[in-house]
Amino acid sequence: MKKIVQLMMVASLGLFATSCYNDALPEEPIPANVSYQKNVQNIFTKNCIGCHKGAVNTNPNLTDGNSYLSLTTANATTGEVFVTPGDASGSILYQAMTGKGAPQMPPNGALSASKLALVKKWINDGAANN
Ligand code: HEC
Questions:
Q1: What is the number of other CB atoms lying within 10 angstroms of the CB of residue 47?
Q2: Residues 62-109 pLDDT 10s
Q3: Residue 110 to residue 85: CA distance in whole angstroms
Q4: Which sequence spans correspond to the domains of the chain?
Q5: Residue from 121, 93, 123 nearest 106 by CA
Q6: For the whole model, what pTM was predicted?
Q7: Across the chain, what does the average pLDDT equal?
Q8: Index of the ligand 1 atom closest to the CA of residue 71
Q9: Ligand 1 contact via 82 beta carbon (within 6 Å)
């Protein structure tokens, strides 16, 4: 009888540990080498270009083919640069996506933790146009 109780305790501990582990996993795996054109642009295309489609007052332009230049070169009128390679937390893009230091983007709530981690990794890895 004692053995059974012990077994049950071990089994439930195992279940508990597994559920914690699952919670900690991001919903989508982050690639070892984040590709701007494939992974990051995909996030913009699905979540941002409804508003950031290149009209005058929708800076940055996040449409496919235009977003990289728009994010990494200084805005002609404001001098603002949205991405500082190697410094996600100092980049307006990441600040906006996390709602820390810039208005929350998208305005109706932050994207999933794994999408934020992907953008963070891309910036911290040097923000290449790869
Ligand atoms: C519903 C429309 C809408 C959506 C969707 C949206 N944005 Fe924005 N975004 C705006 C508006 C409007 C502004 C400018 C006003 C402001 O600064 O609050 C802005 C400003 C920004 C800025 C500049 C912030 C600054 O401080 O200069 C960044 C960067 C940005 N958005 C990124 C994103 C990203 C990335 C997404 C998708 C994950 C996104 N936005 C989705 C409307 C939107």
A1: 16
A2: 999 999 999 999 987 788 899 999 999 999 999 999 999 999 999 999
A3: 22
A4: 31-124
A5: 93
A6: 0.83
A7: 86
A8: 29
A9: yes
Long-range CB contacts (< 8 A, 24+ apart) of 70-77? 72/127, 72/129
Q: What is the C-alpha separation between 58 and 99, in angstroms, rounded?
A: 18
| CB contact at 8 A, 26 and 120 | no
* CA 82-62-50 angle, 5° bins: 130
Q: Name the token pair of 73.
A: 């070169």
Q: What is the rounded CA–CA span in Å between residue 116 and residue 75?
A: 24
Residue 123 near ligand 1, beta carbon < 6 Å: no
Q: Whose CA is nearest to atom 6 of ligand 1?
A: 106
